[in-house]
Fold L-rhamnose isomerase.
Amino acid sequence: MTKEIVFEHAKAQYEKWGISVDEAFDKLKKVPISIHCWQGDDIGGFEVNQQELSGGIDVTGNYPGKATTPEELRSDMEKAMSLIPGKHRVNLHAIYAETDGKVVDRDEIEPEHFENWVNWAKEHGLGLDFNPTLFSHAKAEDGLTLTHPDKNIRDFWVQHCMKSRKIAEYFGKELGTPALTNIWIPDGYKDTPSDRLTPRKRLKDALDEIYSVEIDEAYNLDAVESKLFGIGSEAYVVGSHEFYMGYAMQNNKLCLLDTGHYHPTEVVSNKLSSMLLFSEKVALHVSRPVRWDSDHVVTLDDELKEIGLEIVRNDALDRVIIGLDFFDASINRVAAWTIGTRNMIKSLLYALLMPNEHLKQLQDEGNYTERLALLEEFKTYPFGAIWDKYCEEMNVPAQEDWLAEVKQYEDEVLSKRNS
Ligand SMILES: C[C@H](O)[C@H](O)[C@@H](O)C(=O)CO
Ligand SMILES: [Mn+2]
């Protein structure tokens, strides 16, 4: 059977449920995924005084060929994006500033330090997102930043976040698409705190100060990212889910839900419908926690499918800002991006190809037998043939064909690096 016949046969199976494959493709093409640059260099960044990774996160593995310059990182991302269907965005951290060999501390970063990134984004038709980096720095050594008891340290980080929003505004103005500025801080305590309230009051005050400068939402959107625990903050994290959800609701900010930042049995897919009832937009860091916030490469597991389904069922493809957040240094990093991003897109396509209206109706009718039966049977519908066709239409390799290109890039480029 030719590929075309396989596709037509698959298409007919979805069409018998009134599902239009063409419409699904049209919708999917318009969904940008914010691809995180930090998978490419193990969250190292390009600061002149580079510090060891801190903040209770960790990258394990030493697969050769990691990017050590902005040019290498951009070239690696280009390679990955050539294998991922669709037009997407790139998510930067402040540590990816380019300062021409000059020491520029975090409270001094300016849009000009990201000019190369903006020119590159323009060249490739990409949007950019941004994150202040409140870790891997001498002033974050004890794991406290915006909530530090020392006001000088708090002020330093407030200034860093304010500068970061200005950089994001610059991205938005230059690229014609608002940048998401996401604040995540590692602050917390290893052991049972004697005062949970004061650090949270400090965080609230710091955020109020950071956001006291209005920025047009046409250029910048603000998000806050919570966490349950980190390495060294096992007992208490200041920026918990409840804290940021309250703050975001009261101050018209976006809550960013990282799929690795909750209790191991708690899932983000189950939060989306509630969040979307009360907020216009919600942001995601799609990651894969394995027993903890391990940031494994995203696979097409049940939770990823469920996230895709919730976004589609809630008709929220333009209300959920999808970003990725994983970092695996034990495998080829270009492959890591390719696998994780393709899986995110697959989960959306999978969801777009479900008889969602019919399934909702079955639930309302109390027909749980048929609901379960169909949810299960659709798992073995010929989704692969539709995905392959989507890849073909988007001019990227289908199935595992992309792997040969990654291997070639490894032979010709990555293996020649000293990293
Ligand atoms: C690089 C980090 O993963 C990122 O800034 C943050 O989003 C996080 O998830 C920390 O656990
Ligand atoms: Mn995250």
Remarks:
- The longest strand covers residues 220-225.
